[in-house]
Amino acid sequence: QGIALEDDPNSQDQAVVAYEKVLEIDPSHAAAHINLGTLYYNRQDHGRAEKHYRLAIEADPRYALAYFDLGNVLDETGRVKEAIQTYETALQLAPTYADAHYNLALAYEKVREPRKALKHWRAYVKLDTSGPWSVHARSQAKRILQSDGLKLVPNKRS
């Protein structure tokens, strides 16, 4: 019911109530914590969003989306180094999580670590070969390579 209510901005308060009822019945329902966290995140209530993402991780430490979403809150609230750690954890759990590569690359750019960002821009482009975000990732990788004087050397083991 909460999922159906989320899509309509006029019924999002009802979605919050629905997820809270789920959590009354099962406080360790990770997906309900994620969805509730996302509703709070979209309202820019970062404190509540963070709380629910952390509870989702506590309920299911292998839930990559929970780490990704927590990373978004941490990044949004200026805790970029913590965000990097959570994006890295999301990628340890789900190495082909394209959005985690993208956000991790952005975070590494914020902390002025372009070589680390490059790795994740390139990973993103391999996972999303043609979308608009792929165009941006490709241009970021190219910019880093040009500004750093780096050259890509083909991997002979491939």
Chain-averaged pLDDT? 90
Assembly type of the shown chains?
single chain
Could you name the ranges where pLDDT drops below 50 across 5 or more consecutive residues? Answer: none
Radius of gyration: 18 Å
What is the helical fraction, as a range of percent? Answer: over 70%
Largest beta sheet, briefly?
none
Total DSSP helices: 9
Q: What would you call the structural class?
A: mainly alpha
Distance between the termini: 48 Å
Q: Which strand-content bin applies to the residues? A: under 5%
Number of strands: 0
* N-to-C SSE string, H for helix and E for strand: HHHHHHHHH
Q: Give the overall silhouette.
A: elongated
Task: Give a verbal description of the structure.
By secondary structure, the chain is mainly alpha-helical. Helices cover 74% and strands 0% of the residues. It is built from 9 helices and no strands. The chain has helices spanning 2-6, 12-25, 30-42, 46-59, 64-76, 80-93, 98-110, 114-127, 132-148. It is elongated. The model has no long low-confidence stretch (mean pLDDT 90).
Topology overview:
Elements: H1 2-6, H2 12-25, H3 30-42, H4 46-59, H5 64-76, H6 80-93, H7 98-110, H8 114-127, H9 132-148
Helix pairs in contact: 2-3, 3-4, 3-5, 4-5, 5-6, 6-7, 7-8, 8-9
